[in-house]
Amino acid sequence: MADFVHLEWGRNASSDGFAATVIVDCLSFSTATSVACGRGALVVPVADRDEGKALAVEIGGVCAGKRREDGYSLSPPTLMGLSVNDVLVLPSPNGATLSALPREGRVFAAALRNASAVAAYLKVISGKILLVAAGEKWPDASLRPAFEDQLACGALAHMLDCAMSPEASIARAGYLSCADDLHGALKGCVSGQELTHYGYAGDVDWAADLDSESCVPELRQIELGGKVVNAFGDVSRASHGRSKVELTSGFILLE
Fold it and tell me: What range defines the domain where residue 53 resides?
């Protein structure tokens, strides 16, 4: 059973000693990943879009574009057309970048949309759980802590209901103070205001929709198109009667 939860920020967060690490980028990588994996797709995180486009060609996937472009993007509603066997290469400067860093233990992605599902899955993992709040970046590329990521981390800490660090405890308290109006809280925070200003208020609504997904995206090493990549896939599907294929890497690819 999970016996302790801690929260750290950004790319310098160490996962040493943790059985599982959860990447939390509520606006928008983790929310987008929860929607894509909830449709049965695989999500390959990459930091750079040009790199992502080339990789998508190699592995037979599709690379998400910018919000203002047609097609798939970090905007959650654009991902509703994905389905089982689709492979989405998802560039992101925060959540995807953090997902690509080496970690000790298992790696998951979570947001408010799938908080309960991920927390329930993590509860049966023995050891300590690390929540990594992605945050944003200031113009000089330094970390800008993001309210929405602390909020989602607080939801996970609350739902895990185990011993926690002061950092996780204060995030939990923040979540509980906003739990009755998550939509208002996300719309009022700086990142929510920025998305609304650029015409993506709907993305904020999707991100605030607590427990609207039941998927548990876990990062696994799989082979696609003859190339080994790390991809998030919904491991909860194994308990839903879906078929599964064992890969030579030792990970499981759900079909």
Answer: 2-254
Structure-token pair, residue 32 = 């987008």
Exposed, middle or buried: residue 239 (CB in 10 Å: 0-12, 13-18, 19+)? exposed
Q: What is the pLDDT of residues 44-97, one digit of tens each?
A: 999 999 999 999 999 999 999 999 999 999 999 999 999 998 999 999 999 999
Determine whether 140 is exposed, middle or buried from the number of CB atoms within 10 Å of its CB (0-12, 13-18, 19+).
Answer: exposed
Neighbouring CB atoms inside 10 A of 174's CB total 18
The domain total for the chain is 1
Query: How far is the C-alpha of 57 from the C-alpha of 118, rounded, in Å?
Result: 31
CATH of the domain at 190: 3.90.1560.10
Tell me how crowded residue 255 is: count the other CB atoms within 10 A of its CB.
11
**Taking Cα atoms as reference points, which of 173, 127, 146 lies closest to residue 9?**
146
* CA–CA distance, 247 with 229 (Å, rounded to integer): 12
Closest by Cα among 11, 18, 243, 251 to 122: 18
> Which among 80, 85, 91 has a CA at the least distance from the CA of 25?
91
Q: CB of 37 within 8 A of CB of 117? A: no
